[in-house]
Amino acid sequence: MRKPTLHDVARAAGVSYSTADRVLNARGGVAPKSADRVRDAIATLGYERDLHAANLSRGRNYNFRFLLPKDDHSFFRALRAAVDREQDLRRADRILISVTEIPALDADALAHALDAEGSACDCLAVVATEAPRITAAITALRARGIAVVTLVSDAAPEARAAYVGIDNVMAGRTAGRLLRLAHATRQGCILPVLGSVSARDHRDRLDGMNAVLAGETPALRVLPALSVDDRPDIMRARVTQALADHPDITGIYSIGAGNRGLIEVLEARQTRPLVVMHELTPVSRAGLERGLVDAVIDQKPAQEVALAIDVMKAIADGRDWHDPARDIIPTIFLKDNLPAPADNPQISAS
Amino acid sequence: MRKPTLHDVARAAGVSYSTADRVLNARGGVAPKSADRVRDAIATLGYERDLHAANLSRGRNYNFRFLLPKDDHSFFRALRAAVDREQDLRRADRILISVTEIPALDADALAHALDAEGSACDCLAVVATEAPRITAAITALRARGIAVVTLVSDAAPEARAAYVGIDNVMAGRTAGRLLRLAHATRQGCILPVLGSVSARDHRDRLDGMNAVLAGETPALRVLPALSVDDRPDIMRARVTQALADHPDITGIYSIGAGNRGLIEVLEARQTRPLVVMHELTPVSRAGLERGLVDAVIDQKPAQEVALAIDVMKAIADGRDWHDPARDIIPTIFLKDNLPAPADNPQISAS
DNA sequence: CACAAAATGATTGACGTCTGTCAGGACTTT
DNA sequence: AAAGTCCTGACAGACGTCAATCATTTTGTG
């Protein structure tokens, strides 16, 4: 019961290997009648082309390119590290991954990179932002037959092939649910802290939290959101001020970055509000471990990168794939379900 | 800048292809001096054998076998479904997966299956239980060079190659942390409900919860655990009784199965305690969605199965792999971060 | 130096697919 | 009937590795 080969298909269809090959690879020049018989044989035998042999024969490599923001927030460092790791792991599968760093928040640079880099690869993964130029660039790539996968942050939902990242409204709702859970019986006052008011992701999270806290919990008041520009120093100053202004703050939801500043404020106090923040970084992890932070909502960048590559490969192979959204869910880390710290040495087969 | 082939290695080492091949595949009959030169060349060129070509040449298939408990709890159904799904996905990579169902909780049957099935495959994945017979069987397989991966439930930590599953103490701690979070300012009383007192996994979870709740929170009292034999009917009866006996119960931690019974009790009440249970099943999911359950701690069986297969493949290829424990963490699902419901239709590349 | 043993090189045919070429047959068109 | 299409089959050389055979060279021993 060997897997059928194309030779078997040809024999079953009563044609030569050449003809079966012409049908399989759509080279044309085959009579409709013969083509049908080949297709029938493929179906009845359950033939599946051996992709490894095919790639070997073609000398094919998969060239995937990642366009990542050049930014030294821990989150993007982690994302970059994940891509680098996959680079090694996938090489054995003929997948060549290259990374281009784009100045953060520079829509022009990103659009330009999309135009330029698109030619040199089979599929692109981009941490996108929503801007007309970028939508246009992705649409143009699609027209040229180059698929674009958006990563972490979506754009051009009509034109990109897939989005691999969390639903930020869902993430915000999750934060809201945690805050609500912790306020089951008490009154309270929630302080949301935005990284930047302009970022779509941050607004989505805020909206999500509000949706969960609104109405149903009159005892829980949500203050107007602070905005700290993702910077620890501004975070420290504004949060300190807010805590002074509103002694009844019982919960803080930090939506963006700059959490080092928040932690500094927290560790200077005896009593602290409930704190929920985003992204498991060395800072937030330490915050959890030291009991200064209650929950961290993470999007597991390493898993996102791995899934993005899986999707890109499926696209390149012309296979079907299932919606990655199902597997990318905001993950709640508490003090007690943290993954093992950092990079363990490899364990070898003995 | 093509990837170097074994021909390149041979040329660089100044030997023939045959000799390089003899070194690479340890066929023997090579002078130490030549062998060293080949190894040097491999190192300096960064040669990596093309596994796909090698497998093609050998006609090699990976035969992996899963020994799963024959049990119609939703969790094991989900586990089985995940294996079936991987069966299709991995066939293209020459990975043939077969499943043998073992009567649940029957250590003899499992040990017997381990002895019998081990011969017919390259690597075994087992939902194990801790019993001397099973430890012995796994140790015997290891001696015969057949690796065993324990799945969901560990055993014979010295002899098995890897464990792919959550740390149940960690899961229990996580549940405890959630309960604590929700009792920040109020007094309360927690009712733990065991599936079966004998199961190691359940005891671990209970211990974990106790570890988090003990001492630090004098306002939070933990009642003696109920035991409901993983059965909904017993669950309903005992929990109803407990709620009557202890009107001050503010939290329930359901450690095992039978949650349908618990949900029935909850929906009959106006006010309900905080509820944390395990495993995202149709029942627990509905409980979350209807607001009857607050949190579900899940171990993501589909991901576990996928990771187990990755590890098995690495073992079979003699590659290094990293400890799967880092990627398998108890996941907290709330009402708001549930994955998309069930099986979406496939989205095809357009 | 002779001779066996050990080491090496050369070669070949797989594995399943891709890609290209060439020849011949069937059929239509003038 | 000749010339032109369109289809089809046969074959060959690659891709990188495995596995086996056989011939040749080198080495070591007495």
Entry summary:
The structure is a homodimer of 350-residue chains. Chain A is built from 13 helices and twelve strands.
Q: What's the total number of strands of chain A? A: 12
Number of separate helices of chain A: 13
Name the overall outline of chain A: elongated
The most extensive interface, with participating residues per chain, is:
A-B, 59 and 58 residues
The CATH topology of the largest domain in chain A, please?
A: Rossmann fold
Distance between the termini of chain A: 33 Å
Broad CATH class of the largest domain in chain A: Alpha Beta
The CATH architecture category of the largest domain in chain A equals 3-Layer(aba) Sandwich
Task: Detail the poorly predicted runs of chain A.
Answer: 344-350
Helix content of chain A: 40-55%
Per-chain topology:
2 copies of one chain form a homodimer.
Chain A: H1 6-13, H2 17-24, H3 32-45, H4 51-58, E1 62-70, H5 74-91, E2 95-103, H6 107-117, E3 123-126, H7 132-143, E4 147-151, E5 162-164, H8 168-182, E6 188-194, H9 200-213, E7 220-222, E8 226-227, H10 232-245, E9 251-254, H11 259-267, E10 274-278, H12 282-289, E11 295-298, H13 301-317, E12 331-333
Parallel strand pairs in A: 1-2, 1-3, 3-4, 4-5, 6-7, 6-8, 6-9, 9-10, 10-11
Antiparallel strand pairs in A: 11-12
Helix pairs in contact in A: 1-2, 1-3, 2-3, 5-13, 6-7, 8-9, 10-11
Chain A binds a DNA duplex (30 and 30 nucleotides) through helix 2 and helix 4.
